[in-house]
Amino acid sequence: MIHFEYTKWIPESNSRQDRFEELIGMFNYIMIQTSGDVEEALDWMKFLDNRYGVFGDETNYEEFLRELEEQGLIKRDKTAFVLTDKGGRRIREDSLKQIFTSLKKGLAGGHDTPFEGDGIERLGETRPYRFGDHTSNIDFTATIGNSIRRDGFNMNIHEDDFEVYEVEHSTSCATVMLLDISHSMILYGEDRISPAKRVALALAELIIKKYPKDELHLVLFGDDARQVNIEDLPFVSVGPYHTNTKAGLQVARNILRRTKNANRQVFMITDGKPSAIYDRDGGLYLNSFGLDPKIVNRTLDEAIACRREKITISTFMVTEDPYLVGFVEKMTEMNKGRAYYSSLDNLGEYIFVDYVRNRKGKLS
User: Fold this and answer.
1) How many degrees, rounded to 5, is the angle at CA 195 between CA 190 and CA 196?
2) Do 267 and 203 touch, CB atoms closer than 8 A?
3) Could you tell me which residues are beta bridge partners of residue 169?
4) Strand 112-128 vs strand 163-170: parallel, antiparallel, or unpaired?
5) How far apart are alpha carbons 309 and 303 in whole angstroms?
């Protein structure tokens, strides 16, 4: 007979690898602040180690640098380190993990709407079977009960006896993220662009992982507006720009007009009132003082055009400037959209709560 002797199980220590993961998370956070400049982020890691000993006794800067390379997060390009595609994905993942932690429960990856129909989420209600219903949704208890009520215990099941579970209809959505890169996002020494970028990175990762059938587009707006790739988001930086909200909405509307999705929406993250438009001659008209009626009216016209094309605008304000609040309330009223007044700390929570609720059709 074979005898086994059991002892207390002691799990292997992963403290070293865990420490690397913490350091990579810190590095990715700094990468957002440095607009994707790997060399500058590495310099900050060395500074933090010299000042606070962030590497501790388990590792050192050289080992940390080697770990980043071995994981494929950075690579040497001629004389400097640069971010890889995998590194960009890791920044999005870390942003999602940081912002979305409190909202993980309930995200199964579907796009729920208030409508019943073909889908993947079972409801408690049942109905008679119709041609084309999935057999996996048959409620056998209700079906057999119908047969017994009709013909006793002969178990002679007819087509009319079959009951199926209702399921929630699932759909997809096209979203354009509008990110304000005007100078006010770093005005007076307050960093508003980094939290906004972190939210955008997390939102991108959420859609890519949880809603792969969705469309996601990114548009930056300052004096003008332009579409950029999601992969370029870590490298976005603020420029000496004014805030041409009209141009941003116009580019977003043009993008969404080309999509085949019936559900279309714009998420705009901004901290400033509109202060620029292009006039009819193509020149840039600027006014940073108060709310210029010429700029405001042209921007509101664009919001109304979005409404006519069934594009909902959700505005997430990272400041409580009274001029901005007044403008956004008017724009929201005309677009029949939504507006969120939040601090920088709450911005990520609000934008994700709103995005997930969109999937359930609670958009009015």
Assistant:
1) 105
2) yes
3) 119
4) antiparallel
5) 10
The answer to whether 177 touches 225, Cβ cutoff 8 Å, is no
Q: For residue range 253-287, list pLDDT tens digits in order.
A: 999 999 888 789 999 998 878 999 999 888 999 99
Helical ranges in 110-259 per DSSP H? 140-151, 193-210, 245-257
Torsion of CA 62, 63, 68, 72, to 10 degrees: 110
Specify the amino acid at residue 273.
Answer: K
Cβ neighbours for 290, distance < 8 A, ≥ 6 positions apart: 323
8 A C-beta contact, residue 214 and residue 293:
no
> How far apart are alpha carbons 323 and 219 in whole angstroms?
23
Residue whose pair of structure tokens reads 């108060």 in the numeric block: 290
Question: In what helix (H) or strand (E) does residue 92 lie, and over which residues does it extend?
Answer: helix 85-100
**Residues, the chain, total?**
364
Residue type, 242: H
Q: How far apart are CA 178 and CA 200, in angstroms?
A: 9
CATH superfamily membership of 174-358: von Willebrand factor, type A domain (3.40.50.410)
At residue 50 the predicted structure's pLDDT band, cuts being 50, 70 and 90, is very high
pLDDT value at residue 122? 52
**Structure confidence by residue, pLDDT tens digits, 217-261:** 999 999 999 999 999 999 999 999 999 999 999 999 999 999 888
Strand partners, 286: 276
As given in the structure block, the two tokens for residue 292 are 């210029």
pTM over 0.85: no
Query: With DSSP H G I counted as helix, E B as strand and the rest as coil, what are the percentages for the chain, rounded to 5?
Result: 45, 20, 30
Pairing of strands 174-180, 264-270: parallel
Asked if 67 and 17 touch (Cβ cutoff 8 Å), the reply is no
Sign, CA dihedral 349-355-357-138, equals negative
Interacting residues of 364 by C-beta distance below 8 A, sequence separation 6+: 336
